[in-house]
Amino acid sequence: MKSLRLTAVSATLLLAALAGVGPANADTPTAAGILKAGAQQGVADGYPGVIGLVRQGDTTQYVHAGTGNLATGMPADPKAQFRIGSNTKAFTSTVLLQLEAEHRLSLDDTVAKWLPGAVNANGYDGTKITIRELLNQTSGLPEYANSPQVSGPYVLDLNPNQAWAPQTLLDIALASQKPTAAPGQKFSYANTNYVLAGMVINAVTGNSAATEIQNRIIGPLGLTNTTFPTSDPNLYGNYLHGYVHPVVFYTNDVTVSDVQVFGSAGAMVSTLDDLTAFSRALLTGKLLPPAQEAELKTTVPVNSTGTAGYGLGIEHAQLPCGQWVWWHNGAVLGYYSTWLSSDDGTKQVAHANNEFHLLPGTAGQTDTDTALVNAYCAL
């Protein structure tokens, strides 16, 4: 399905929006003011709610517009939890980089070294694909979420408890098409890479990616509002409800959705505060030694203009104002979020919206992403 194909390339959605982004309005006094206006425009465009955060040094400002729950009309809370989708990928890559620093693996190990026979079908060969190529999206593996077998039930939210073993998702991907590029040849974003990365974590440690992320990142950083659900599709506590519209004749509450579809590629739940705290810690070396920090930030080209490159679960891009940022986003059923950060973590902007129907390029996405970029450029 085309809709899930676009979800699979969620890390490039912002770049498409940047084509229409101009410099910040000189009449808008603050970055928070720009982000607030964008949130309000997003609601005018049809989003139920939009929340945002601007952080400069130790000063944090929050913005919000609309509602986090259509049933109650409660205002969207900028401290509420939401599904972060592909922002999960940076957590997964961090664990593998830490394992390398501990000499328990090398990113240049082949997939087959840790998962013998897992990738061995339809022309794909795990003996020729490295862990690094999984993390920088150059493995050449196809996207499993494009398959109607996966996308149909997920888009319709028919069974939030449906179980998907990682190997099953991998097998679906391998059967979907023959290779179109050799490993390491070109960037091609696929959730399949990070499902495999989670499988490698399990093979090396004996624990799930969720357990390792909890023990190595969530706990040590004190990210008390961040979780990695592995089977329970519900959200708890203070959270934004997620919605789908206007694909159907009514707005559908999809807050409860299948977390096993994306797993270590996109199942996590967090808040703007926790997500930016994590990205700041990651970018400034608090989670990785210098050698692995350098690997994290070594990029492969995403476009032909040299203005974007993908590292290991994070992307580097030049904004229209000339500034370079590290960033990533996440787009899963009902939720769309993005964070931007300077290399030293002193400047950060993030937002989350509680409607995503798996199609990019909507007015809400364009307007809120434009405001996100302009807010950063105003810092």
Defining traits:
379 residues, alpha+beta, nine-stranded antiparallel β-sheet, 13 helices, globular, disordered N terminus
Give a structural overview.
This protein is an alpha+beta fold. It has helices at 2-8, 13-18, 31-45, 88-101, 111-114, 131-135, 148-156, 166-176, 191-205, 209-221, 272-283, 290-296, 363-378; strands at residues 49-56, 59-69, 74-75, 82-83, 120-121, 124-125, 243-244, 252-253, 269-270, 300-301, 308-310, 315-318, 324-332, 335-341, 347-353. The chain has 13 helices and 15 strands. The protein has a 9-stranded antiparallel beta sheet, sandwiched between helices. Strands 4-9 form a two-stranded antiparallel sheet. It has a two-stranded antiparallel sheet with strand order 5-6. Helix 4 packs across helix 10 and helix 8 (166-176) packs antiparallel against helix 9 (191-205). The longest helix has 16 residues, at 363-378.
Output the structural class: alpha+beta
Q: Which strand order spans the largest sheet, edge to edge or round the barrel? A: 3-2-1-15-14-13-12-11-10
Strand content: 15-25%
Number of E strands:
15
